[in-house]
Design goal:
CATH topology: Growth Hormone, Chain: A
CATH architecture: Up-down Bundle
Number of domains: 1
Distance between the termini: 56 Å
CATH class: Mainly Alpha
Shape: globular
Oligomer: single chain
Strand content: under 5%
Helix content: over 70%
Structural class: mainly alpha
Order of helices and strands: HHHHHHHHHHHHHHHHHH
Length: about 400
């Protein structure tokens, strides 16, 4: 008995993780994405690079995050959630160290690619929830987890702006190094395995993975989440430029205003956690899409009709955040429930489409906006993607009503 206890202690966690652990895991990737946003202009000046190039500190992270999620899902289905999380946590720490000492923009971007391994935490936290709960409860649990998770990205830009002003832009990566070490320890001590690995031949696993693409229902969930979050990622790509070059905000002020978006997202997550099990996944997705479309439409009206100020840029984004907080947990829960035995693969594929689409929109937004056009292309991109997500959610809603009648 004593020998068994010793082996258990040395092997780390053997029981499912606590909800608080899943919150921190899911939040770590968003922290890595957000913390350097307020200091992007400073990074560009320090490394003598253009505004368009320094945007890749964000967009290359998003692109790498998208690609990585294609692989972490199937790997986690095959080898288990725990070993994948342990390995990717170590890679994240290495990438952060490279960012801290990067002598040029190319090295910094390479470090950001390695940092994108934190995508495993974001994707697999959803898969772990699906391992533990059924479809309707999973939507509520994802909503509650992401509601608590938004506290981290809400304060992260504030921390990044303040720390960057006081100690320079490299200090933001020092903060991420500490976070990475804490996440590794947390995974080791609290994340026991929740999935029984399926040791199928690689060819069979690839066939299972691509079989997801033949499920019409899963495409509805995927495209709804991709388009709904598109406005958010486009905003991330353009807001630092608009805030500092057009409105004239400081890095710390910009970080504070980003908190408004996170507050809206947190409230939307609360609504998901409170009502998804009661009224259903598809209605929550639809009404979230309506809020997102209203928010982006209001942004166009305010920024086109009046002199640009921070409140006109960020206040409507609270509606967008609230809409995403209602849409994304439900769309993600629906996607991983179409084929529960492939929940990890579905979470990874959905993350690829969601983050990959966001990366494209962030690049597009960053390349089209100028001081002369007052960043209006950014607001049009946000509105079109929100409207598209709302339309797909409406189709899913009507489809679900027809199926219930039959």
């Amino acid at each position: 008995m004593a020998e068994h206890k010793k082996r258990t202690k040395l092997s780390g966690a053997v029981t499912p993780p606590k909800i608080g652990t899943l919150v921190l895991l899911a939040g770590s990737s968003v922290m890595a994405m957000n913390i350097s946003l307020p200091v992007l202009p400073e990074i560009g000046r320090a490394m003598g690079t253009s505004q368009a190039t320094v945007q890749y500190v964000l967009t290359i992270f998003l692109m790498a995050t998208a690609v990585i999620q294609l692989f972490v899902g199937p790997l986690a289905d095959r080898f288990g959630r725990r070993p994948v999380l342990l390995v990717t946590s170590v890679v994240f720490i290495v990438g952060t160290l490279i960012c801290m000492v990067a002598p040029n923009i190319e090295t910094l971007l390479f470090g950001r690619v390695l940092q994108a391994s934190s995508a495993a935490c974001m994707a697999l936290s959803r898969a772990i929830i699906r391992d533990l709960f059924d479809r309707s409860i999973a939507a509520s649990m994802i909503g509650y987890v992401t509601m608590a998770m938004t506290i981290l990205p809400m304060v992260t830009p504030m921390i990044g702006g303040y720390v960057g002003e006081q100690f320079g832009w490299r200090s933001t990566f020092t903060v991420l190094l500490v976070v990475g070490i804490l996440i590794l320890l947390l995974v080791y001590w609290d994340v026991g395995e929740t999935h029984t690995p399926v040791r199928n031949p690689i060819s069979e696993q690839i066939a299972d993975y691509f079989s997801l693409l033949r499920e019409p229902e899963i495409w509805g969930y995927f495209m709804c989440s991709t388009l709904a979050s598109g406005a958010y990622f486009a905003f991330l790509g353009g807001a630092p430029f608009v805030g500092q070059q057009i409105i004239g905000l400081t890095a710390s002020s910009l970080g504070m205003y980003f908190g408004l978006l996170a507050i809206g997202y947190m409230f939307g997550n609360f609504l998901s956690g409170r009502f998804s099990e009661r009224i259903g996944i598809e209605p929550m997705m639809f009404w979230g899409g309506v809020l997102g479309t209203l928010g982006t439409g209001l942004t166009i009206v305010l920024m086109a009709s009046f002199a640009p100020i921070a409140e006109f840029l960020f206040a409507p984004m609270m509606l967008v955040g609230m809409g995403n907080g209602m849409t994304l947990p439900n769309a993600n829960a629906g996607a991983v429930s179409v084929r529960p035995e492939l929940a990890g693969s579905a979470a990874g594929l959905g993350g690829f489409l969601q983050i990959g689409g966001g990366a494209v929109l962030a690049v597009m937004a960053g390349s089209l906006i100028t001081v002369e056009n007052l960043a209006m292309p950014l607001y049009y991109i946000m509105f079109i993607t929100s409207l598209g997500g709302c339309a797909i959610a409406a189709w899913m809603y009507m489809r679900a009503k027809r199926l219930r009648k039959n």
